[in-house]
Amino acid sequence: MQIYKKKSAEINRFIFWTPRILAILFILFLAIFSLDVFDMDLSFWEAIAGLFIHNIPIIILLVILTISWKYEIVGAIAFILAGLLYIGIIIANIFMNQFEWYMVSYFFIITGPAFLVGILFYLNWKVKKKIKSKH
After folding, report:
1. Where are the beta strands (DSSP E) in the chain?
2. Could you give the C-alpha distances from 135 to 100, 114, 129, in angstroms and in order?
3. pTM of the entire structure?
C-alpha cells in the first residue's frame, strides 16, 4: 500500500509540473519569433511597438498560464483553442496566398506543443478532480 501511495504521489507531481513547464518553454519558444523586429530598419519606438505587437499572443498565453496554474481546466481549453485558432489562421493564409508546403510544418511546430500542453492540463484537472472526489 505504501508503494502505491508513493507511486501515486510521483505521478501526481509529474502530471502537475509537466504542463506548466512545457507551457513556459512553449511561450519562450514563441517569444523568440518576436525578435525578428530587430532585423528590420526601424526607429527605437517603432521597434518597441513592433515588439509589443508581436508579443500580444505571448502576453495572452502568460495570463492563461497564470490562471491555469490553479484552474487546470482553463489551461486545457485555452491551449487547445489556441492551437485550433492557429490552424485556422494558417488555413486562411493558405487560401489568401499561394500554398507552400512548409506551411504544413507550422501545424506541427506550433499546434503540437499547444495541444500537448492542453491535453496535459486536462489530465491534471481529471486527476485533481478524482483526488477531490475521494476525500
Report:
1. none
2. 54, 32, 10
3. 0.85
